[in-house]
Design brief:
This protein is an alpha+beta fold. The protein contains four helices and ten strands; from the N terminus they run H-E-E-E-E-E-H-E-E-E-E-E-H-H.
């Protein structure tokens, strides 16, 4: 179950990615995962993965026909982001990250609001942590640099008061 900090972090990241014209950003987009066996990642899902946020350099085409929509997208995003909520386990999201990479995602982020940390994965076991003491979150694979105080906005307001 998402929390207030989860929601704020997800919203902040979505806005920050959305402000970068290189990306088309989606929230809670259902990705077709039928090409892999998700049980190998100890996930409950059978044929889809839903990242909190995902971004594409070249987004999937959209049918402009009135009333049409795509429920499960087959084009895999370049970036997938998960935000850890109090009701989720870290292992659950790490397993999901592995599945994202198996699908072909190039970079995965795990935002942990309670710790004020963003872990940027370039491969399943290769990552860098960025915390509130850093200036930016840096993703070399995606060529992204985001001010960390804008990711964890509640914290930046506390710092400004001090």
């Amino acid at each position: 179950m998402p929390s207030k900090k989860h929601s704020m972090t997800q919203t902040s990241l979505t806005v920050l990615f959305g402000n970068d014209d290189r990306f088309t950003t989606f929230v809670e987009l259902s990705l077709d995962a039928t090409s892999i066996n998700l049980s190998q990642f100890a996930l409950k899902a059978k044929d889809e993965l839903i990242p909190d946020i995902c971004a594409y350099f070249e987004p999937p085409p959209t049918d402009d026909k009135l009333g049409s929509d795509e429920v499960r997208v087959t084009q895999i995003p370049d970036l997938a982001v998960e935000v850890l909520s109090p009701s989720q386990t870290l292992n659950e999201l790490l397993n999901k990250m592995e599945a994202f990479f198996a699908l072909g995602v190039k970079s995965c982020w795990l935002a942990m609001p309670s710790l004020e940390v963003v872990r940027v994965f370039s491969q399943p076991l290769r990552y860098k942590d960025f915390n509130i003491n850093d200036i930016e979150v840096i993703d070399d694979v995606m060529d992204i640099r985001l001010p960390i105080h804008k990711v964890f906005k509640w914290r930046s307001k506390e710092i400004q008061k001090a």
